[in-house]
Every structure is written in structure tokens, then in C-alpha cells.
Write a structure and sequence with these properties.
The complex is a heterodimer. Chain A is mainly alpha-helical. Chain A is about 75% helix and about 0% strand. Chain A has helices spanning about 1-35, 50-60, 65-75, 90-125, 130-145, 150-160, 180-220, 220-230, 235-270, 275-285, 290-320, 325-329. Chain B is globular. The chains are: A mainly alpha, B alpha+beta.
Chain lengths: ~325, ~550
């Protein structure tokens, strides 16, 4: 059994790497097809485009795109993602700094989402068809339909403007480095509450509707009715029989949610001025900072692939009816 | 008695303190909060190095970390730059304006404790002018003495007499030696050890060792730049504010909201409509304007750009719609520019007639009369030039071709979107069909520089030295900023005359004549000069804003308790 799982994981990993390779090739060439010039910032009335051309050649962007691609791939395998045209720093350094921010807010939101969704799902199942169930269901639909930036603005309005509890932007205070460890942690929490809340609220609104639906469906299945007729308490049926079965579809949703969470992080980081990968990617797209865009796409692609991969493995683990061959395909 | 004496003495003290201009700037005793000022900026710094920093925000932050030999201010009364001692305690300009000698302060130290000397000045100018460094300010090299290989002769051009005296020698008489030698100075002991070709990507660009009123305390990319005042007793401009925190907030509404709720003390580029709200509903916020050097215009491509591009710049023919001077004049007459100003800017913009800002009083041609909004006259001129509605579709046509075009603007500029709407409406009245096209900023400028646009709305900031040849000179391959492809030999002659030695009066005449030609030719339709609207918390005192930079004399600002 263990060997089978190992083979599945290995096969999926090889597939995933292949997917990443296709992704980066497509993104690299697409980026170079985009109109716009990252060296335009060096055009000046005094020099015309002379300085821009000089710097373009220094960066190796005067070569053919295919040559640039081969050189770039060679360097990526050496762990070198190149140099940012805009920030003039190694891309790996920029990515390292920003991915920590992105992961810290998205992972926290992801965990919070699970911690909220499951108990809330059980609560809604318990009160299925009642007023509270209807209200939460409709509210979740409204929040899910609203774009993430709108949720962020509403939270800023109440959290920062009306009640003045949380800062509306930045990740840390200006005097962060003068604080001790506990103060630093509190400062981070203070600044990241609203962004994490934005992601959590939008994610919960998305997943709760699936979990609720799944819980209700399972609760109407024959084996549950049989359990009820045997006099097993409803609480035990919900927790030990309905929930584990409903979780299978919820895990699938979680896999998809990783991708959606990343796109929401992109917006959230921009609204809250957080120096994460989302903000880095958005600003790099506007300035046509090719090396950074491609590296960001690789990272986010990898995260989505890994997320889906973990979800598949988990489904296979929890669902005895699931075939490993299907997962490994 | 005591009750009367105390206020009198206080007033006297305050007055005396303000009169004092040397050494630490003093303020009303007991009223100063020795604290922090939060300034919102819309983009991050590109470099902490004046060799490369290109954008406005980076420039003004670098000016707080690095100092020049002098500091300058724009004098609105005379319309010229006025210079004050800074790293230099004095200077002497030769009678023929071919050299300037600086006498440096001898007690200054860099932020790492190293002593400042004339060698730093010499090496800084070596870096600015050396081609391997690729400085964005390399153009300054044209003023200095060159050797046989066309390189700047560093020993002759930047002559160090001793640790505190340096002489700059120019290749010819220059109009303003102080302007040319006014670049920020860099520490030789830091830069000497770095290969010139490696400088552009070097770590030193983000770890500045400076000699200015502030030092960099910490920097988090895309987040914040914290400057702490330079308490060194060796620098005589010790700021009253202890820390400046520049918060990078890209979203305009976030910047505005944070000012309103007190998270931020200072913002710039406030939209006119918000300025009115701030004035009316936020008594703790003060709104001020700086008349500047930024104008918006409607660009008409003067040449057939497709033919130009296809022939690699060899064939130049007039644009089928905008190649005619009279047609361009008619277009300007048909647009109600005042309606745009009143509708969007209110009191915060002024009609533009030429590319010389009204702040350059010495060179502005005040005899130029504004082209009035006159759609009837515009129609008449167009008729005279063959543009008539022959097929009754309410659109003018000539040789079977209708007068219709795309007016392109970069997205995210609400004032230009507003202007475009008025322009479309006004031109429709005289039978011209305009389609508004919005492009993402990077794409817009790409198309603009590649001369792919027929008509567009954009803006320029005019340089302090009024070198306008790059924007209006006829050599289209050299002057890439002449995006409307304007060509006039008389204007070229003016530029070539301006490069020669001229008296102020001669220069004034030439620049005023240039404005007359431009108004006659209407290569573009000049729209308006835009004021920079600044809003800040009223606890901030003693601010004096200057068109050169709003942070000018920031060391004199203080926060009231």
C-alpha cells in the first residue's frame, strides 16, 4: 500500500514538473510578445533612447528571444532567476522576500478558513432549513459574488476609519526594528489582521456553500437514515458519519481554493500595500519587468500544482473508493 | 507685570529664532514635537543613488540623503534659480563664465563618519560623466573639457587645489555654472572600490552613505523608507523633525483616506474634487498648491507616421488629417479648453498657450493672446481647407475620406478622461468624429514613442534649464521626445542660437519668438498647466513649498505639539 502511494506521488511529481516547464515556456514567450518596453524608463530628453539601449544590452535583452530563453533556462537550473530590470536586484532575492509575505497571509487565511468552515458547516447542518441557515447561506453568496477588493474596502472602512482599530496599509510599523520579539509579533498581527480577514471571509464564503451542500446530501443518504433508525444520537451521526463523507468533496474544493486564494492575495496585497508576491507581480506586469513576471508565474504555478497534488493525495487517502490509478494519471 | 512680560518675551524669542538662518533652525520654544512625519508616496524609490535615480519621488528622497555643493530654490518673482551655500561655504565664478571655484566646508562628515573633501566632489563628477557608469545624468559631460578621445579630461575639468577647494573648468562659456555643478555629491571612499561597470547593479545603490540633512534608517521595498535626521554637528541644517517616514501606498484613495483618518500627515497630487472636500470638511487638514512645470496637451501627429515607420524614418509626409497647420489651429479653436479647466480643475489649473510655464516669468511671452473657443471660425477654416460634409452624414469629409480619428489616452488618469470627453463632444459639434481609446500606461508610451498614435492626450514636465530642443527639434531620430513630429527650420535655428553664448535679453527674445512660432503652428493643442495640490495635517508648521521640490527646506518644517 505504502509503495503504491509512493509510486503515485512520484508519478504526479514528474507530471507536475512537466507542467511547470510548459507553463514557464508559454509565459516567457507570451511576455516578450506583449507590447511595451521595460527600458522605456531610461528614455530621456537629453539622451533619447541611447541610455536605454545601453542598459538593454547590459541585461542581454538585445538578443533574440529564443537565445534569451535558452540562457534563462540554463540559469534557472543553476538557481539564478536573473536580475530585475526595475528593482535592479536579483529576482531570487525579491521572490524570497515577497513569498514570505504572501505565504504568511495566504496560509493563515487558508488554515483559518478550514477552522471556520467545518464547525460552521456542522452548525448549518444542525439548523438546516431554519432562518439562520438561510441568512448565512445568502450572506455567503453575497460575499462570494463580491470582488475581494470590495471586501477589503469594507473591512478598511470599519476597521480603520470608523473604529480605528487596525492600520489600513503596510505590513509593519515604521519602528518595527526597535521593538522586542513579542512586540514585533503583535505588530505583525495588528497589521495583518485586515488582509488575513479579507482572504478568510472571501474563502469561507466560497467553501461553506460547498460543504453545506455536501453535508446535506450525505445526511439524506441511506446509510445515515439507517443510523438514525438505529437510534444513534444525531450529534454522533453528524460528526462521525456525515462529516467524514462530506469532507471528500470539501478537500477537492480546498485544492481549487489554493489557486483562487493566490489570485485574491494579488488584489489584497495591492489594496493593503503589502510587499508580497501579488503586489510584486502586478507592478512587474505594468513595468514589463520580464524576469520578475516569469519567476512569479513559476512560483504561483508551482503553488497551485502542489496544492492540487496534495488535495488529490488526500482524497485518495480518505476515500477508499478512489483509485490510485485515477489519481496518478 | 509678569503676565504681560511673558507673552512679550515669547514673541520676541519667536521672532529672533525665525530671523536666525544659520545653524540649527529654531522654532517657537516648547511648541515643537520632536517626532515623526508620515508622508505617503505613490511609488517606491528606484535607487538610493543620484547617479541612477530617475523619477521625481526618488529624486527628492535622494536629495535629503545626499547634498550638492549648493542648494537651489526657484524664485517666483524673478523666475530664476537662486543658490545658497550647502556643502560649499562659498564660490567664485570666473569673469568669462568658463570656470567656477568652490570653497568647501571643512568640518563635514559622511554618515559613516569619514571626512568629506574636495576629492569626493571630483570623484562624483568623474562618475557622473564616465560612459561606463551609465548615469542618467551623464549629459552633464558636454560642458566639460574633453581629451583627444572624446572623453572628459578629469584632471583639467575637475581640478582639486586642496582638500577644501575645487575648480570646475568648462569647455566654453556657460550660462549658469552653479546649475551644472549642482549635482549631489557621492562618497569617494565607498565608490572608489567598485568597478564602474558593476555599479548599476551594485548593492551600494540601496545602502546609501550620504551627507545630507537625513540618513536612511531602514528601507523595506514597496513598504517604507524611514529617514532619521542627521544629528551630526558638522552639518548646519539639522532638521527639527526627527524622522520622516515615507509610506509607499500605490492606491490614491488609500492615501487620501489615511490622511483623513490621521495615519498619514502629508500627501501630494490630490485630485481637485478631493481638495475642495478636504478644505470644507476637514478642519485639521490644510490644502496648498504649487504652480509647477507640468502641462497637458493634445498631441496631433504632424506626419504620416505609418509611412515614416515603414521607411525607417526616411520618408516624411504630412499627416492626412493633422499635417496642415490651419487644420490644427481650427481644432484648437473648436475645443473649449476653459470648460475642461472649470469642469475638472476649478482653481487648480491655468490655460496653457505654449510650453513655457508661467513660473518662468523672464521667458514667458505675455503678449501671446489665448486662442479663443470659436467653433464657427474653426468650421470656416476647415471649409476653407476642403473639409465639408458632402454626403450629409454630419461628418466632414475630403476626397471621400471622413474626418474621424482615435484620441488615445493612458488609463488611470481621470483628468485626461474628462478632457477627452469634452474634446469628443466639442469636435462632434463641428462635424469631426472622435473615438476615445484608452491604453494601459506602458502600452500607451510604447505606442507614443514608436509614433503609432494619430492623436492623444499626454503631459510633459518642462526642464528647469528650458532646453526644449528634445521636444520640438526637427531631427526626429535624435529628438525622440518630439512625439508629434513637429518640424520647423526657424525653430531649429532658435535652438542652435540658444546653444551659443547669449545675453539674458537675447535669450529672452529667442524663447519668446519660439513661443510665437509654436502658437502659429499649433503642433499640439496646449491645454492647461496643472498645480500640484498638497494636503497636510495642520500640526505641520513652517512649510514653504517651492516648484523645484515640495521637500525644499524640509529641515525648517516642524510639528506643533
Amino acid at each position: 500500500m505504502r509503495g503504491k502511494i509512493f509510486r503515485v506521488i512520484l508519478k504526479r511529481l514528474v507530471n507536475s514538473l512537466f507542467m511547470v516547464l510548459i507553463l514557464i515556456s508559454v509565459v516567457f514567450f507570451l511576455m516578450h510578445l506583449l507590447p511595451g518596453d521595460p527600458f522605456q524608463q531610461y528614455y530621456s530628453p537629453k539622451f533619447g533612447d541611447d541610455l536605454a539601449e545601453k542598459i538593454r544590452s547590459e541585461f542581454g535583452f538585445d538578443k533574440q528571444v529564443s537565445v534569451q530563453f535558452i540562457n534563462w533556462i540554463k540559469n534557472v537550473f543553476k538557481g539564478d532567476f536573473g536580475y530585475s530590470i526595475v528593482y535592479k536586484r536579483p529576482v531570487s532575492l525579491l521572490l524570497g522576500e515577497s513569498i514570505l509575505v504572501t505565504l504568511s497571509i495566504s496560509l493563515t487565511a487558508f488554515i483559518l478558513q478550514i477552522l471556520i468552515t467545518i464547525p460552521l458547516g456542522l452548525f448549518l447542518l444542525k439548523h438546516s432549513g431554519k432562518k439562520i441557515d438561510l441568512i448565512i447561506d445568502r450572506l455567503a453568496l453575497v460575499i462570494y459574488s463580491a470582488p475581494a477588493f470590495l471586501v477589503a474596502i469594507v473591512l478598511i472602512y470599519f476597521g480603520s476609519i470608523v473604529f480605528k482599530i487596525f492600520p489600513s496599509s503596510q505590513m509593519i510599523s515604521y519602528n518595527f526594528y526597535e521593538k522586542n520579539l513579542i512586540e514585533k509579533v503583535l505588530d505583525l498581527l495588528h497589521h495583518l489582521t485586515l488582509p488575513v480577514l479579507t482572504l478568510t471571509v472571501t474563502s469561507v464564503s466560497f467553501s461553506i456553500r460547498y460543504l453545506r451542500e455536501s453535508l446535506i446530501n450525505v445526511s439524506n443518504e441511506g446509510f445515515v437514515i439507517a443510523l438514525r433508525s438505529n437510534g444513534i444520537p444525531e450529534e454522533i451521526i453528524r460528526r462521525k458519519h456525515i462529516l467524514p463523507n462530506a469532507l471528500i468533496s470539501y478537500i477537492t474544493i480546498l485544492g481549487l481554493e489554493i489557486g483562487s486564494l493566490l489570485s485574491k492575495t494579488l488584489i489584497t496585497e495591492t489594496v493593503f500595500s503589502l510587499p508580497g508576491m501579488g503586489k510584486l507581480m502586478v507592478s512587474s506586469i505594468f513595468t514589463r519587468d520580464y524576469p520578475v513576471i516569469v519567476a512569479c508565474v513559476i512560483m504561483s504555478g508551482l503553488m497551485v500544482i502542489i496544492g492540487n497534488f496534495i488535495a488529490d493525495v488526500l482524497i485518495a487517502r480518505f476515500n477508499p473508493k478512489f483509485s490510485y490509478e485515477v489519481v496518478s494519471r | 507685570m509678569k503676565k504681560i512680560l511673558i507673552p512679550i518675551l515669547s514673541v520676541l524669542l519667536i521672532t529672533l529664532n525665525f530671523i536666525s538662518c544659520k545653524g540649527r533652525v529654531e522654532t517657537p520654544v516648547g511648541k515643537v514635537y520632536d517626532g515623526e512625519l508620515f508622508i505617503a508616496i505613490k511609488n517606491d524609490v528606484d535607487f538610493f543613488n543620484p547617479l541612477y535615480s530617475g523619477d521625481i519621488i526618488s529624486g527628492l528622497i535622494n536629495d535629503l540623503i545626499f547634498s550638492a555643493l549648493t542648494y537651489s530654490e526657484f524664485d517666483p518673482d524673478s523666475g530664476k534659480l537662486v543658490y545658497y551655500p550647502n556643502l560649499a561655504k562659498g564660490w567664485k565664478i570666473s569673469k568669462d563664465n568658463r570656470s567656477i571655484t568652490y570653497f568647501l566646508k571643512t568640518n563635514l562628515k559622511w554618515s559613516d563618519g569619514e571626512k568629506f573633501s574636495a576629492r569626493d566632489v571630483q570623484y562624483s563628477y568623474f562618475l557622473y560623466t564616465h560612459p561606463d557608469v551609465m548615469s542618467v545624468r551623464q549629459d552633464v559631460e558636454r560642458f566639460f573639457i574633453h581629451d583627444g578621445n572624446g572623453q572628459v579630461d578629469y584632471q583639467k575639468s575637475f581640478l582639486v587645489l586642496n582638500d577644501s577647494v575645487i575648480v570646475f573648468n568648462f569647455s566654453q562659456k556657460v550660462e549658469d555654472p552653479l546649475f551644472i555643478t549642482g549635482l549631489p555629491i557621492l562618497p569617494e571612499h565607498i565608490f572608489r572600490n567598485i568597478q564602474l561597470k558593476e555599479l548599476f547593479n551594485h548593492d551600494v545603490n540601496f545602502k546609501p552613505v550620504g551627507i545630507g540633512p537625513f540618513k536612511l534608517e531602514n528601507y523595506i521595498r514597496q513598504q517604507q523608507i524611514v529617514l532619521v535626521r542627521n544629528d551630526s554637528l558638522f552639518f548646519d541644517k539639522i532638521p527639527l523633525i526627527r524622522k520622516l517616514i515615507f509610506k509607499v501606498i500605490t492606491d490614491y484613495n488609500s492615501r487620501l483616506n489615511q490622511l483623513k483618518n490621521g495615519e498619514i500627515d502629508f500627501i501630494t497630487d490630490v485630485h481637485p474634487v478631493d481638495a475642495e472636500i478636504l478644505k470644507k470638511d476637514f478642519p485639521k487638514i490644510k490644502v496648498e498648491t504649487i504652480s509647477g512645470r507640468d502641462y497637458d496637451y493634445i498631441g496631433w501627429n504632424n506626419i504620416d507616421h505609418e509611412l515614416f515607420r515603414k521607411s525607417s524614418g526616411k520618408i516624411i509626409k504630412p499627416h492626412p488629417l493633422f499635417g496642415n497647420r490651419e487644420v490644427r489651429l481650427a481644432l484648437t479653436m473648436a475645443i473649449n479648453r476653459k470648460e475642461i479647466i472649470e469642469g475638472y480643475f476649478g482653481e487648480f489649473a491655468h490655460l496653457a498657450e505654449s510650453p513655457i510655464s508661467p513660473i518662468f516669468k523672464r521667458f514667458l511671452d505675455t503678449s501671446l493672446k489665448a486662442i479663443q473657443y470659436n467653433p464657427e471660425e474653426a468650421k470656416r477654416i476647415l471649409h476653407q481647407n476642403g473639409w465639408k460634409d458632402t454626403d450629409g452624414d454630419k461628418i466632414l469629409d475630403k476626397d471621400g475620406k471622413p474626418f474621424k480619428f482615435k484620441l488615445t489616452i493612458a488609463s488611470g488618469k481621470p483628468h485626461r478622461e474628462f478632457a477627452a470627453t469634452i474634446i469628443k463632444k466639442d469636435l462632434a459639434k463641428i462635424g469631426i468624429n472622435v473615438e476615445i481609446e484608452m491604453l494601459e500606461t506602458s502600452l500607451f508610451f510604447n505606442n507614443l514613442f514608436q509614433k503609432k498614435l494619430d492623436a492623444w492626450i499626454a503631459g510633459w514636465t518642462i526642464p528647469l534649464d528650458l532646453d526644449l530642443e528634445p521636444f520640438w527639434g526637427s531631427d526626429l531620430n535624435k529628438n525622440i521626445f518630439n512625439v508629434c513630429s513637429y518640424r520647423n527650420s526657424e525653430v531649429d535655428l532658435i535652438f542652435s542660437e540658444l546653444r551659443k553664448e547669449k545675453s539674458l535679453e537675447e535669450k529672452r527674445k529667442l524663447i519668446q519668438h519660439f513661443q510665437k512660432i509654436l502658437q502659429k503652428d499649433q503642433p499640439v493643442t496646449f491645454l492647461y498647466w496643472i498645480d500640484n495640490i498638497i494636503a497636510y495635517n495642520k500640526k505641520l508648521k513652517n512649510t514653504k513649498f517651492n516648484p523645484i521640490a515640495y521637500t525644499n527646506r524640509i529641515w525648517e518644517w516642524y510639528i506643533e505639539k
